[in-house]
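Notebook entry, cofactor series.
This is the third protein in the set we're modelling with a bound small molecule. For this one the ligand is adenosine-5'-triphosphate. I'm keeping the input format identical across the series so the outputs can be compared line by line later. Sequence and SMILES below, as received.
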Amino acid sequence: MTTNTSTLAIGARAVRKSFGDHVALDGVDLTVTKGTIFALLGPNGAGKTTVVNILSTLLKPDAGTATVAGFDVATHPADVRESISLTGQFAAVDEILTGRENLILMARLRRVKDAGQTADDLLARFQLTDAAKRRVATYSGGMRRRLDIAMSLIGNPPVIFLDEPTTGLDPQARIEVWNSVKELAGQGTTVLLTTQYLDEAEQLADRIAILHQGRIIANGTLAELKQLLPPAKVEYVEKQPTLEDVFLAIVGATGTDGDPAMTAASAPTSKEQR
Ligand SMILES: Nc1ncnc2c1ncn2[C@@H]1O[C@H](COP(=O)(O)OP(=O)(O)OP(=O)(O)O)[C@@H](O)[C@H]1O
Ligand SMILES: [Mg+2]
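Returned structure with ligand:
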């Protein structure tokens, strides 16, 4: 690999993976620089979760090499696991426990010294303090996702994988997750996220790779990707607000899901996982 190893957080080269006859990854190359946000964009079945699972050592590649935080996933999987956290495509919080209990459990698993204080700090940071003592079964989809991401930050891993962090969230909850991700990268954490949403990649990512049928078909900054198309034609159109602008203007930019009474009365549809 030609990239400077001191700035390389994630590197993959010629990674291949098949499930039976089905080729899920057909030679994937990636480099992610430390402290940046990298978005892996692709439709259903493109291979995004397979890439994340290989980089996080949940799956072994059939061929190719990958390093994460300086460790080879094939030869040093335990060191890779110590250096990462993975927030999977489907929230992995325990419904029976409260939000605070989930965080404390994770803090103990990660051998963090002051588990209670760590949990309280994260609850505050993710606007979950009011809901801290409620069972997660009563949380909205956005609250679960925020708790899931909060859990992944315990122990300050240098590399974080987020597999479709905002799928199923309402616009406010998506913006809250985006802000948390930006904050993480601002503190030097490397984030690799997968998404099907073009606007999510546009909003968040320093670099974007487009995965299609197991191959990376484009890779670059947003500006570089835009240059792949011919220069835009200038047309004068009246700009109408988007539905998202209208939604946010009416509902407000901050979520209300910390307060169950408010949410039930004022934004019933925002409670549902779509
Ligand atoms: N364990 C498995 N066994 C068989 N096929 C699998 C397995 N895991 C993934 N696949 C197949 O590999 C391909 C890539 O799957 P993957 O889950 O990586 O896609 P994805 O980009 O994450 O899709 P989505 O957006 O739906 O989450 C799909 O065709 C999928 O059916
Ligand atoms: Mg997936």
